[in-house]
Amino acid sequence: xxxxxxxNPLFATYVIAATLMILKAVSMSWLTVVxxxxxxxxxxxxxxxxxxxxxxxxxxxxLERNERVERVRRIHQNDLENLPFxxxxxxxxxxxxxxLLMAQLLLYGYVxxxxxxxxxxxxxxxxxLRATLWTAxxxxxxxxxxxxxxxxxxY
Length: 155
What we know:
Blueprint: H1 9-39, H2 67-95, H3 100-122, H4 127-152
Helix pairs in contact: 1-2, 1-3, 2-3, 2-4, 3-4
């Protein structure tokens, strides 16, 4: 299928946006670990209290909820709830053959909205700001999905 090659600028645009979002989501796991080590806490499993080179002085308090660690976990959970829809909707949208400019605006616009949402969440900005940034990405997904549906129906 010639639409699904990196020589197709539409598909290449999707691949760039999708890989950026995948890398961002995967990086959240790493950020969680970094935060747990920085805080020496926020662990979740009882076996995390075993003495190891990374935890030479286990303490039961390490299993207590730690807001700095939990904030990163919530950001990661938000990614896991939203990114699969983007990955599917973006690919299907590209298959409709939109203009390159429109695809770039939508796909990269989604990436920017998610990165700004991440920054707002990590820095404890208001819910209103986070919701605004989430809404921008959500509206992009809705537009791409509806446009794809209409194309599949022959409109």
